[in-house]
Structures are given as structure tokens and as C-alpha cells.
Amino acid sequence: MRLVVIAIAAALVGALIMYAIVRPSSKEADQAAPKDTPQRITIENGEPTINIDGPTQKKIGLATVPVTATQQNEELQLFGTVVDVQELAALANQLATARAQVEQARAKAAFDRAELSRLRTLNADNKNVSDRAVQEASATLAADDAAAASANASMQAAMSTALQRFGPIIANALQSQSSLYQNLVAMRQMLVQIALPPATQPPQTLSVLAADGSTVPAKLLAPAPRVDPRLQGASYFYVAPGGKLVAGMNVTARFAGTRSTAGVFMPSDAVVSFQGKSWVYIKRDPTHFTRREISIATPLSGGFFVTNVAPGSEVVTTGAQQLLSEEMRSQLHEE
Which residues are CB-neighbours of 86 under 8 A, at least 6 positions away? Predict the structure, then answer.
């Protein structure tokens, strides 16, 4: 009898030990149990949508505003280069040198012409001077005329080069040494060549993007007489203030076109940055918010012009960044 009792007791102890070994932990049991909470992140039409209950919204101070419809003139982007006017200064030196040579040759020719006339008179008066002296004076005068013609040709060549390279307005400014020429060579003003699409009228003013990200106003000067091979298309010269533009640099320019585009005004408070892009949260219903990518390429005062959000849509302003954090945290937990 004693042996039977001992055997039963040993069996009970063994069963308890096996139960302790194979029984799942409370954490494992929780993980194995089916989840009753709904999934917080879903994808609707390719856009992530987060489910946020009312208490959580109050906790993060979430607030929304409806976006209003607006119109925006299309903004065209143009390409150009800042022209190096060193060639213009070189042509000015060539022109000044040639002009001085012309004046010098003409002055010498006037003197030699008078001397030839005197020698001819003396030669006619009983050969008071020899025929050879008259011939030498005549040859000297011919050389003066040739020098004047050569210098005049150099002047014409300089003007022709300026006309072909820079057009009549700048060529005339070069010849007259006007304020336009003086400002260009002193870099108080910069010459910018802008290429326009076919059948596009050149705007009177446009904004040139400088290297530091700021814009520089530029005014239309004249059509460019030749096309920049890097740009193609009809080109025009614009003048812009000096200081931020550097000769030889490639630039982009913007101006408002004639066509208008419909969109909405997006407050800057509604925009959050994530993965190098800009996003807003749109309220679908009281507890669901959809994150949508937008473009901030068209800034407005206090916000941006956006085309892919419907007018009247409620977007999250206060608490947008916290909503993004909640979304990222929920995604980590659901994984």
C-alpha cells in the first residue's frame, strides 16, 4: 500500500513539472491571442490613412481648417546664361585704337596735302623745287590716305563684330560710350541671354534665380543676334543688377504666363516634411486622416499654391507633425 501511494505522488509531481515546462508564458499567450484593436494604418488609393480617436486628437491638440480655392497664373521657367562682356571691352579698345589712328592719319594727311600744294607751286615757278620732291610729297600723301583707310576699316570691323555679337543697341552703346556700355563693362549691370520657347513673346521683366537662391529682376533689352548653342530657341538680352550674378554662369528665370491654373491656398502650417518630400494630412471623417504628397514649388504669402487638393478639404494645421509621429509609431507597432 505504501508503495502505491508513493507511485501516485511521484506521478502527480511529474505532471506538475511537465505543465510548468510546456505552459506558454503570459507574453506569448498575449501574442497568440487574436487582436481586438483595429489596424490604425491603411492604404486608401495609394495614400496612407491613419485612424486617430477623439481622445488622441485632443492629446496632440489636433486642429483642421478648410482650404480655399484660388487661381494662379502659370509660371514659366526659362533657361539662360550670364554673358561675359569681356569681348565687348576688347572691341571698345580696338575701336578706340582705330579711331585714334584715323584721326592721326587725317591730321598728317592735311599737313602733307598742304605741303604738296606748296611744292607744286614752287615747282611750277621755274622749277624752284625738283619734280622728285613733288613726287615724294605726293607719295607721302597717298600713304597718309592709305593709313586713314586702314584705320577706318579697323573701326568698321570692330563695329561689325559688335553688331553681330551683341546687336545694334549694344553696338551703338559701345560706339557712343553710353551709360549702358559703361554699366556693363563695370559690371554694375549684367547681360543675361534668355532662350524662349517657340511663339512666346518675350516678357518685359522676369526674375532670374541667383546662386544664393534669391531672385534678381531683369529687364528686356533687345533680341540676341545669335543663338546660344547650349540653349537653342529664340534668345533675348536682359539687363539685371550686378552683385549676385557671375559672368558665364547658367541661370533659370521665371515669369508669369497668360494662362491661369485652378488650385487651393495651402497654409504653411499644414505642410510637413518626410523622406525629402512635402505632405499634408486631409481629414476624411472624424477619425481618419490621409497623408498626401504636395508640391511647394509655388510659394504664396503664408503658404503655397497646390493643385492636387480639392477646395473645401479640411487639412490638419495644428498637430500635423504630431500626426506624422503617431503614424510612424503605429507602423512600427503593427510591424
Answer: 247
Burial class (CB in 10 A: 0-12, 13-18, 19+), 208: buried
- The grid cell for 197 is 520657347
Alpha-carbon radius of gyration of the chain:
43
Looking at residue 252, what DSSP letter applies? Answer: E
Q: Look at the domain 41-72+261-334 and name its fold.
A: 2.40.420
State the maximum Cα–Cα separation within the chain, in Å, rounded to a whole number.
Answer: 181
Tell me the CATH number for domain 78-84+187-259: 2.40.10
How confident is the model over 66-83, as a mean pLDDT?
Answer: 88
State the pLDDT at residue 15. Answer: 43
pTM score = 0.52
To the nearest 10°, report the CA torsion of 285, 290, 294, 298: 30
Of the candidates 14, 64, 3, the one whose C-alpha atom is nearest the C-alpha of residue 318 is: 64
- DSSP for 151-187, written as a single string: HHHHHHHHHHHHHHHH-HHHHHHHHHT-HHHHHHHTT
